[in-house]
Every structure is written in C-alpha cells, then in structure tokens.
Amino acid sequence: MGESMPCNVTTADWQPAAFPADLEAARHLREWLDDPSYSLYGIEQDFRGADLSGGDFSGGWFIGARLAGVRLAGAEFYRADLQSADLTGADLTGACLVKATLDEAVMRSARLDGADMVGADLHEVDAAGASFRGTRISGASLLGVDLRGADLTDAVMSENSFKVRVDDTTVVRGLTGTVFGPIIVVSGDASRELAGGELEAWIRARGGDVQVIPPRRQAG
C-alpha cells in the first residue's frame, strides 16, 4: 500500500460556522486561524458547541479534547492525534481520518458515514452505537474496539486488524473487504470468539461479505 495522503480540500480563508462555547478553546482556535502555519494545539480543550465542518486540522493535537456533539463534517484530520478525545455524538460525516490516532477515544453514537479511515489507529475505542455507513477503513488497526450497536452498512474494509466486540444489534449489511480476526460476539452476560470461516459465516448471515485473512499473512 502506498503512502496515504490527505483526502479533503480546505480553502485558505476557511472559518468555523460556530466557535466553541468555551472561551479558552475559542481563543486557541482564533489564534491558530490568524497563523495556520502550525498545527492546532487543542490538547484537553473544550470545543463543545462548535461547528468546525470543513476545517483542515492535519497534524493537530486533540489529545483529551472534548468534542462531544461537535460538527466536524468533511474536516481534515490527516495524521492528527485524537487520543482519549471525547467524540460522543460528533458528526464526522465525510471526514478524513487518514493515519489519525484515535486510541482510547470515546466515539459513542458518533457519525462517521463516508469517512476515510485509511491507516487509522483505533485501540480500545468505545464506538458503541456509532455509524460507519459507507466508511472506508483500510490498513487500520481496530483492536479492542467496542462496536456493539454500531452500523457498518456498506463500509469497506481492507486488511484491517479487526479484534472488536459486537452484538446482535451491530449492523454489517453490505460490509465488504478483508479483515484479520477474531471478533468477540457479546450476548447478554455471555460472549464467544469467532475467527476464520465462523466469522465469515456470521457476517454473511447478516448481509455482509468479508474475507477473513489467516493470521500468518498479517504483517509484523
């Protein structure tokens, strides 16, 4: 796989449709807009109430940032660091998360429909109830990700580490591509691990068509 590149185009005169309610976060954002030659430093900042759709935050630092409910549709987060960020209910429709780091982020009920997540890192992410409809997830690491109640309708996978938790409310209709398993299927207080043909059959029975690649073919 070649080097992934940013996927969205942002005009030089971009301005947010709404600034964060938090005065400190708004000040940081305004200072960055005045001099966007450096990456936005948003570590532990509270961006709630903002509409940052279409912004270019490539290489930005959002570790521990509060982004719950923030509109980020079409935003560019190429190589951005969103570790431990709270993205609960955030709108990331069509966002570029290529090579973004999302380890330990909270993405419950977030909307990532049509997002590009090539090469993204998602370790121990809570994405329960999130929507990944039509999302492109290629060469990414989904390890310990909670996808219970998530919607992966028509998402496209390609050689992803896919050690996730799902349940009967996880939607995989139209899910295609290749993954490395196994996954854990949770049912009440019980759980079971599925890999190989069993995992393929589980997805196929729910309207998806995914090939599970044997671990010996996984790099590293």
Automatic annotation (TrEMBL):
TM region positions: none
Pfam family, one: Pentapeptide
Matching InterPro entries: 5peptide_repeat, Pentapeptide-BTB/POZ_domain
Stretch forming the signal peptide: none
Designated name of the protein: Pentapeptide repeat-containing protein
